[in-house]
From TrEMBL:
A cellular component annotation (GO) from this entry: cytosol
Record PANTHER family: METHYLENETETRAHYDROFOLATE REDUCTASE, METHYLENETETRAHYDROFOLATE REDUCTASE (NADPH)
GO biological process: methionine biosynthetic process; tetrahydrofolate interconversion
Protein name per UniProt: Methylenetetrahydrofolate reductase
Length: 291
């Protein structure tokens, strides 16, 4: 039997008004997409967009932000809508809402509530290669220890350093966390957007470091905007992790900047296929197996 290739890609998108018309032009509907749940949007918007994307054919992974959900009744209604659309995978995160809207103050509580509703959802949780500006390493590792047994994958926070990503993966493996990991990388996005959102999302430190260590080589000018090109980061991560059975693939933070996506997808196709398959991944392989 031939080995199956695993360099996979998942695009993270924001549920904007024009997403459903814009995305299929840039990314085939057989692909895999992850839909954010931002505090000012709320979970209903995420679920509505996810249901529509799933109906278009995408393997769709909605984010549910614990701190944005008002209670069990809302949670069950959201989960039912997702089940009816065939959505079986979720990404659970605390969410950036300052005060919780209901009983779920962090993602561990939401994970238990989702699992009690149905054990059939596969659940992704967040990982932080460069830590988190508001949370200590101790907080991060203890919450990870609680969540990991109920989760089926991890997605890493946006990070610009292949070295930091590898180091983080070694650390969590040593701690006994054996989840398949989607490595989060920025998509081709304008520097202005990256810098303004990056600082707000808590990846300012990573951005600063990246600027000092080679981000300059990843910048290029498009339509008079400076843009970031993650091609090199992707190649470095792939070189390091290809063949690791727990490397699920690349989770690309697109910020809905879809114009240059075809270039990024070409870069990804140019990578050498790897030879192992992480279990439990349901997205479409980017590089079909060679028979
Ligand atoms: N990595 C990503 O892609 C995303 C990260 N985030 C943000 O990262 C942070 C952590 O999320 P998770 O990894 O799911 O953490 P978590 O739910 O596993 O919580 C980890 C620890 O931090 C505490 N905590 C989490 N959010 C908090 C908040 N807003 N205020 C005070 N304490 C908080 C929890 O009580 C817990 O002790 C949140 O602020 C989250 O919104 C949000 C969306 C996506
Ligand atoms: N702390 C944190 N919170 C997050 O929500 C988050 C992360 N980190 N890390 C990675 C991704 C990236 N996320 C985001 C966050 C904001 C936009 C964004 O485009 N925000 C626009 C508004 C979009 C709209 O309202 O339609 C903005 O200008 O804020 C995109 C992706 C979500 N994720």
């Amino acid at each position: 039997m031939s080995a199956e290739a695993v360099a996979r890609i998942r695009l993270e998108v924001v549920p904007s008004a024009d997403l459903l018309t814009q995305l299929p032009a840039a990314f085939d509907t057989t692909g895999s997409v992850s839909v954010t749940c931002l505090p000012h949007h709320g979970p209903a918007r995420t679920v509505e967009a996810s249901v529509s994307l799933a109906r278009l054919g995408y393997h769709t992974v909605p984010h549910l932000a614990a701190r944005s959900i008002t209670g069990k009744a809302e949670l069950h209604s959201l989960l039912l809508q997702l089940q009816q659309a065939g959505v079986s995978e979720l990404f659970l995160v605390a969410g950036d809402r300052r005060t919780p809207a209901g009983p779920y103050a962090w993602s561990g509580e939401l994970l238990e509530a989702v699992n009690a509703y149905s054990p059939d959802f596969s659940i992704g949780i967040a990982g932080y290669p460069e830590g988190h500006p508001q949370l200590s390493q101790k907080q991060l590792s203890s919450s990870l220890g609680v969540k990991a047994p109920l989760a089926s994958s991890m997605v890493t926070q946006m990070c610009f350093s292949a070295e930091a990503i590898s180091r983080y993966l070694r650390t969590i493996r040593k701690a006994g966390i054996e989840l398949p990991v989607w490595v989060g990388v920025p998509g081709p996005v304008s520097i202005r957007k990256l810098v303004s959102l990056g600082a707000r999302l808590g990846v300012g430190r990573s951005l600063k470091l990246a600027r000092g260590t080679g981000m300059a080589g990843a910048l290029w000018r498009r339509d008079d905007f400076l843009s970031y090109d993650s091609g090199r980061l992707i190649r470095e991560v792939h070189q390091e992790l290809a063949g690791d059975p727990l490397f699920a693939g690349f989770h690309v933070y697109t910020f809905n900047d879809l114009g240059r996506l075809p270039g990024l997808l070409d870069d990804l196709r140019a990578l050498q296929p790897t030879t192992t398959l992480a279990s439990g991944n349901t997205s479409i392989p980017l590089f079909p197996a060679k028979i």
